[in-house]
Structures are given as C-alpha cells and as structure tokens.
C-alpha cells in the first residue's frame, strides 16, 4: 500500500492569492494602476450567485477593483452585448467575465466572442482558444490553469508522462489537454463515447476527470502511482462529491485532489492571476 498524498488546493490557492496581492500592491505603487475585474451575471442561478459573490470578495481582498453587474433573466442578447461593449471601452476594467451558463435565449458564443480578447480573463474567446492551441501567448482558462499548477507542484517536470483527460468541454477538457501537450505529456482525451474507459485510464500517469458524473472514476481503474486531478463538483444528497471515487483511490494513486478543497479554490486564484496579467499587458 502506498500512502496517497492529498493535494491541498485550498492552501496552494491561498498562497497564490497572497502573492497576487503583493504584486497588485507593487503595480499600484509603481505604475498607479489598480487592476479591475468586471463580472456580469444574468438571471438568478443559485450556484452562479455563490460563485459571483466569492469572485467579488476575493478580487477585493487581492486589492483589485471589483465591478459586479446583476442583470435580470429577461435581459436580451442585444442588451447584454451592449453591456459587454461598454466594459470593453471602460479603461478601468482590465478583465471581463460573463458568468456561464447564460439563459437559453442568449447565444453564449456570440457574447463570449464580443469580449475584447485582451480583457478575456476566462480565456474562452475563440482568439484565446486558438492561440492556446497554436502555442501562442494567451489567456488560459482558469480551471485548467489551476489543474496544471497543482500537477507541476506535485510532479515537477511532466515531460513524457501519459495524461488521460476525461471530458472534452471547451471550458476544461480541451484546454487542459492543450496545456498538458505544451508540457510534453502524451495526451489522450476520453469522453462519453470512449470504449473501455477503465482500460484507457489504466495507462495514465495523470488522470484529469472533468465529466460531471459523481464518483464515476474508480480506484480499480488506476495504474499504481497515478496522480488524480478531480475537476468535478457534484451535489449528491446535499454533499459535494467529485467525478472520482476518492476513497477507492486511497493506496493506489500516489496523489489526488479532494472535493471540496482541491481544484475548486484554484479557479478564482487563477482568475485573479489572469486579471493582473490583463492589467499589466500580455508579456
Ligand atoms: N461557470 C462555471 N465556471 C465558470 C468559469 O470559469 N467562468 C465563467 N465565466 N462561468 C463559469
């Protein structure tokens, strides 16, 4: 039996946010610039309201300005586009985040692609997705960036390792795969149509689970010593669980992230990192 290290994303994110706050202070004192993040929420989705509140709080705690816009569920596409356009033109706003999911009558893709790519701190704009895929400097989506930071902190050099990413969303699966490829991993993207998923996962040195199915990935699927990153946040009978059956991985994985307290706290920390980057300009 190997001991399975618990990857403490909460502590890592706290250290990262403290370092961001230090760099924000420097930017203020040396350049007179206070980074500003605008968050737009349309409608009353309770989970989104919690996320947006946390984003605002942590933005202010990092010494940045937070601009929050809560628009009614009935907001039209044209009204939301006009809001995005005004934020694009506002020099105090360095980063813009439109909280997803949007109401069904709004074309989310059109809204995301209306954001100035230089203010797209979510990294969802097609220009940023394309730059990531072609190895150009870009904004990288926050959850994937958080996964990569935890993996590098746990494993150091990722070069040559086989990573199996389960899930192919534009928000997590695809950008995580791109980042791991950039780190010279051999990358497999698995998804709902993959045949023999346990057999595919068994090849992995790194498993990233981002499927939204509670406790789907079992310890018995893993190669001994694999590192497991669980991106899932599922509420089951009032309890938060990931996409990985955490208990069954103990003694098989060499390290794994808990839910909550693993990848989750990294997302907002990386959003703040991206906002600071937007305020200083892409290097
Ligand atoms: N909804 C859930 N996660 C995210 C995220 O990272 N960004 C945005 N804009 N919406 C989300």
**CATH architecture title of the largest domain:** 3-Layer(aba) Sandwich
CATH class of the largest domain, please?
Answer: Alpha Beta
Give the rounded overall mean pLDDT.
97
Number of strands: 11
The CATH homologous superfamily of the largest domain is termed: NAD(P)-binding Rossmann-like Domain
- Compute the gyration radius: what is it? 19 Å
What is the string of SSEs from the N terminus onward?
EHEHEHEHHHEHEHEEEEHEH
Number of structural units classed as domains: 2
Taken as a percent bin, the fraction of beta residues is 15-25%
Helical region count?
10
* Helix content estimate: 40-55%
What is the straight-line distance between the termini? 46 Å
Q: What general form does the structure show?
A: globular
What characterizes the major β-sheet? Answer: 6 strands, parallel
Uncertain runs are none
Structure, briefly:
The protein is α/β, with parallel strands linked by helices and 283 residues long. Helices cover 41% and strands 16% of the residues.
Describe the structure.
Helix 1 runs parallel beside helix 10, helix 6 crosses helix 7 (173-182) and helix 6 (142-155) packs across helix 10. The protein has helices at 9-31, 46-61, 77-89, 108-112, 126-133, 142-155, 173-182, 197-201, 246-249, 264-280; strands spanning 5-6, 36-42, 65-71, 95-98, 162-166, 186-190, 206-209, 227-230, 234-236, 239-241, 255-256. The protein has two domains: 31-117, 3-Layer(aba) Sandwich (Rossmann fold), CATH 3.40.50.10860; 141-265, 3-Layer(aba) Sandwich (Rossmann fold), CATH 3.40.50.720. The model has no long low-confidence stretch (mean pLDDT 97). The strands form three sheets. The protein has a six-stranded parallel beta sheet. The protein has a three-stranded parallel beta sheet with strand order 3-2-4, sandwiched between helices. It has 283 residues and is α/β, with parallel strands linked by helices. Bound molecules: guanine. Guanine is lined by residues 97-100, 122, 142-143, 267.
